[in-house]
C-alpha cells in the first residue's frame, strides 16, 4: 500500500487542496457523471433551453449538471478566461464546437460516456444535436463560472 485512499465506488471525490488541472477536472467529471442514477432526481428535465443544478462545491471546485435539449437562441462561443473545466456526457450527446481563428469551427460529437477538458485559453460552445432529445452533462469548473454564464 502506498498510503493513498481509494474512494468508495460512486463517491464524489474530495476536492483537491490545490487548484486542479484540466485532467484532474476530467477525472472528477467522469466520477460524478458515471454516478448519474444517484443524482438524477436532482436534475429537472430539459424544457426548452434547459436547467443547471449544482451537485458539489468545495474550495476552488464546482460541479454542475446541465439538462438541455437544444442550443439556446443567441448562444455565442464562450471564452474560458481564468476558468479551467471538464465536461462529461451522462445521457444523450453534445455537439462540441471549438472556435479556430480564420477557419471554420472544429466540431465533434461527444456521446454519453465521453467527455473533454479545457484550460483557460479555450473558446468553444456546445449543445445537443437538433431533435435528439434531452441531454444531461456534468461540468466541473475551477473557479466557478460567473453567475451570468449559467443563469
Task: Provide an overview of this structure.
With 151 residues, this protein is mainly beta. It has a single domain, classed as Jelly Rolls (Sandwich). The chain contains three helices and nine strands. It has a five-stranded antiparallel beta sheet, with helices on one face. Strands 3-8-5-6 form a four-stranded antiparallel beta sheet, with no helix packed on it. The longest helix is centred in the N-terminal third of the chain and has 13 residues. The chain starts with 21 loop residues before the first helix and ends with a helix. The N terminus is likely disordered.
Question: Which key phrases capture this entry?
Answer:
disordered N terminus; 151 residues; 5-stranded antiparallel sheet; 4-stranded antiparallel sheet; mainly beta; Jelly Rolls
- What is the CATH level 1 assignment? Mainly Beta
- The assigned structural class equals mainly beta
What would you give as the CATH superfamily? Jelly Rolls
β-strand percent reads: 35-45%
E-strand count: 9
Q: What is the number of domains?
A: 1
Q: What is the overall pLDDT average?
A: 79
The name of the CATH topology is Jelly Rolls
Unreliable stretches covering 5 or more consecutive residues: 1-6
The major sheet is characterized as: 5 strands, antiparallel
Give the overall shape.
globular
Give me the oligomer status. single chain
Identify the strand order in the major beta sheet.
1-2-9-4-7
Amino acid at each position: 500500500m502506498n498510503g493513498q485512499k481509494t474512494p468508495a465506488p460512486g463517491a464524489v471525490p474530495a476536492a483537491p487542496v490545490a487548484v486542479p488541472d484540466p485532467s484532474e477536472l476530467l477525472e472528477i467529471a467522469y466520477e460524478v457523471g458515471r454516478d448519474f442514477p444517484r443524482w438524477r432526481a436532482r436534475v429537472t428535465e430539459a424544457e426548452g433551453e434547459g436547467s443547471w443544478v449544482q451537485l458539489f462545491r468545495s474550495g476552488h471546485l464546482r460541479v454542475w449538471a446541465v439538462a438541455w435539449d437544444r442550443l439556446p437562441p443567441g448562444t455565442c462561443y464562450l471564452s474560458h478566461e481564468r476558468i479551467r473545466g471538464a465536461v462529461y456526457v451522462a445521457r444523450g450527446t453534445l455537439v462540441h464546437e471549438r472556435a479556430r481563428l480564420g477557419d471554420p469551427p472544429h466540431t465533434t460529437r461527444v456521446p454519453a460516456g465521453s467527455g473533454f477538458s479545457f484550460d483557460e485559453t479555450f473558446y468553444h460552445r456546445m449543445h445537443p444535436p437538433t431533435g435528439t432529445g434531452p441531454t444531461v452533462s456534468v461540468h466541473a469548473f475551477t473557479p466557478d463560472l460567473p453567475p451570468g454564464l449559467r443563469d
